[in-house]
Amino acid sequence: MDEFVDDVSEHQATHPPPSLIPRLHAVSVRKLPHTNPLLLRGLPSSDACAETTYKDLHNLLTQCLFGDGVAADYLLCHLVSSVYIRDEVECRGQFCLNLSNIPAEVLPGYTRSLYELLELLLPASHYLPMTLDNMNTLQFAPKKDYKTNKLTSGILQLAPHTHLVLDETRLEAGKLESAGVEAVKHVAHLIKAQRLKYDFQFYQLDFNTDVPVLVLSEGKSMLPSNCYLPIVPDLDAIKLIDETIKAGRHYVAPKLDGMRRFLTCARVRPFDMKTLDPTVVQDDFVRMRTENSAVTMDDLHALFVLARLLGLSRGRTALHRDDWERAKALEGERRNRMELFSKRKSEP
Question: Which BP terms in the Gene Ontology apply to this protein (predicted)?
Fold first, then answer.
């Protein structure tokens, strides 16, 4: 009798009823490259409103980022980013963005308001305030429970192309416990490799992900990133930011469907990187190396990724010379800001 009860219990554990885990039976399945219900009939061959939609999005993000157009450029690139090359060693295309120097006087409400605006534009997103309690208590990576013989989910176990917004401005003074340290390691690994470690207790397995990560912080984040950008806010914009974001929500309401389609199409549309004259890239790389011997091939790859994203964010299907020039200009401005904020931090 006991053996029968054990068998029933084991069967219930491995085959839970539909009331606990719903089943979906399908006669035919077609995998889509996106989760946008506005594009179920496929991607449009062209978009006559692409330039207008780009300008609307750029203007919206500029206003919601305290009038910082450079930050809007980078955020728009982040919104259309995805992994497009992956091998056993590395992947290309991910664009983790760390926006810092968020004015203290608008916290903590601003970061949540900004996320809610981005949430309107994206098919899938997740907001995680990095409080000490969350870091120390939440399970970030999936873990095998051998008692129930099931894999318990982690909060980083997200569907492909789910935008993860990490709010580091919520991190208060205190101690990260061992679980919190492991959580930081899991997030850092996700950002750098776009892989998530599944914990089977006796060993760990890496599973590929494609989760764009946006980190919002006051200073430079403790997490790694592909792009660190201090925001340069307009003083008047700081005072009016609550009203600006509210106005932004009203502004996008009649244009939401077009913006949502535009961002999804930009992310999944094929893009030709070979249209740029190789001699232009070669000459620029030589000049960069001459000006700064620390420049490496990784820096060149990062510039290519940014130029590609700038082209995609304009609704293009091939890399133009002005995308390349714009990428160089943006990176120059970003480095200048990093040096400026580094000097400010070192001043007594």
Answer: DNA-templated DNA replication
CA 17 to chain centre: 36
Q: Which two tokens stand for residue 211?
A: 């989760």
Q: Are 83 and 94 in contact (CB under 8 A)?
A: yes
162-179: per-residue pLDDT in tens? 999 999 999 888 888 999
CA distance 109 to 117: 13
pLDDT digits (tens, 9 = 90+) for 10-55: 666 667 777 777 788 888 888 877 878 787 676 776 666 888 999 9
Query: Measured between alpha carbons, how far is 159 from 156 in angstroms, rounded to an integer?
Result: 9
Smallest CA-to-CA distance from 215 within 245, 193, 191 is with 191
**How many CB atoms lie under 10 A from the CB of residue 206?**
12
Alpha-carbon dihedral angle through residues 323, 88, 269, 214, given to the nearest 10 degrees: -70
The answer to whether 193 touches 93, Cβ cutoff 8 Å, is no
Closest to 104 (Cα-Cα) out of 180, 264, 18, 216? 216
Cβ 152 vs Cβ 141: under 8 Å: no
Task: Answer whether the bond into residue 254 is a cis peptide, omega within 30°.
Answer: no
Three-state DSSP class for residue 246? helix
The helix (run of H) or strand (run of E) holding residue 145 is strand 143-145
Structure tokens that stand for 276 in this block: 């740029």
Q: ∠91-122-135 over CA atoms, to 5°?
A: 65
Torsion 54-84-215-151 (CA) sign = positive
Q: Amino acid identity, residue 58?
A: H
**Do residues 79 and 122 lie in contact, with contact meaning Cβ atoms separated by under 8 Å?**
yes
CA distance 273 to 179: 42
CA distances for 243 relative to 199, 232, 249, 326, angstroms: 45, 19, 10, 31
Look up the pTM and report it: 0.90
- What is the distance between the alpha carbons of residues 171 and 332, in angstroms, rounded to a whole number? 30
Strands 213-216 and 163-167 turn out to be parallel
